[in-house]
């Protein structure tokens, strides 16, 4: 029963993660904590082991998504590697901070973070692009299938600083970091939406490799439960990437921010009580 539930959660995480560039951990972590501690379907669930499971999953979510987006040529590999310069040490720092958190503290901080992300998703379409970062940064150009050209860019130092913070959050909570990075890419760096999501998932893959190594060394991975999670995440990411190329993801983002808000409130309430 536990394997089937984890497989379904992983598929859902992969679909959501690949569709909007979040990585999927933002679904897997609270869901696994719930079925482990409330429903008692999984033994040995702690904030550390859930994060360890999530970062293993994100290797395959990121890989499947990146392979799919490579076919549509929407992955900006150069930008992805620049972001990785910051996210790599950030992931190690986040994993180190995670080992000191007990369940109430993790629920409280993660709940606050989920509410923050829900608010970001609510207001990101209302925020006007900031032209300064493109005008004073390293410029990139993207041409879509119709031949329309879009110029975007960023100061490299700022991109590295931002991605370090994203890496810390990823290592701490076991999420992909796209919830922070994608809005920044859209609003500050003026990435085309499909390029932002595809590049974010490439960074999720790279950061998850470092995250996984850190959490494996800390003994945070329950290997038995990776068996249903890995194929579920891979399948879900393939589906999410395919949907991303065909549909407008506005409805999903709207539903996602409501779910995140409710989950955040529940985790904070549970931690305080």
UniProtKB/TrEMBL annotation:
It comes from the Bacteria. It is found in: Cell membrane; Membrane. GO terms for cellular component: plasma membrane. The chain crosses the membrane at residues 6-29, 41-60, 80-97, 106-123, 156-189, 196-216, 222-239, 251-269. It is a multi-pass membrane protein. Keywords: Cell membrane, Membrane, Transmembrane, Transmembrane helix. Its main location: membrane. Belongs to the 4-toluene sulfonate uptake permease (TSUP) (TC 2.A.102) family. This is Probable membrane transporter protein. It comes from Lysinibacillus odysseyi 34hs-1 = NBRC 100172. The lineage of its organism: Bacteria, Bacillati, Bacillota, Bacilli, Bacillales.
């Amino acid at each position: 029963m536990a394997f089937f539930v984890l497989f379904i959660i992983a598929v859902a995480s992969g679909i959501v993660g690949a569709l909007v560039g979040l990585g999927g951990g933002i679904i897997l972590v609270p869901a696994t904590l719930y079925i482990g501690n409330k429903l008692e379907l999984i033994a040995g669930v702690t904030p550390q082991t859930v994060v360890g499971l999530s970062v293993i999953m994100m290797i395959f979510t990121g890989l499947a998504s990146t392979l799919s987006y490579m076919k549509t040529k929407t992955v900006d590999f150069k930008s992805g590697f620049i972001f990785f310069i910051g996210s790599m040490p950030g992931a190690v720092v986040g994993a180190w901070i995670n080992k000191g958190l007990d369940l109430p503290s993790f629920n409280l901080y993660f709940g606050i973070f989920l509410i923050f992300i829900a608010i970001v998703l609510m207001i990101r379409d209302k925020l006007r692009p900031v032209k300064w970062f493109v005008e004073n940064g390293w410029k990139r150009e993207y041409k879509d299938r119709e031949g329309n050209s879009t110029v975007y860019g960023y100061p490299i130092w700022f991109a590295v600083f931002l991605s370090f913070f994203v890496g810390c959050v990823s290592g701490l909570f076991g999420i992909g970091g796209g919830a922070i990075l994608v809005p920044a890419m859209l609003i500050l760096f003026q990435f085309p939406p499909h390029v932002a999501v595809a590049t974010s998932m490439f960074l999720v893959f790279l950061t998850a490799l470092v995250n996984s190594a850190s959490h494996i060394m800390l003994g945070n991975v329950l290997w038995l439960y990776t068996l249903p999670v890995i194929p579920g995440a891979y399948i879900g990411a393939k589906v999410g990437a395919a949907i991303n190329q065909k549909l407008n993801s506005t409805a999903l983002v709207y539903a996602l921010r409501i779910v995140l808000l409710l989950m955040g409130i529940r985790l904070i309430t549970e931690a305080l009580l």
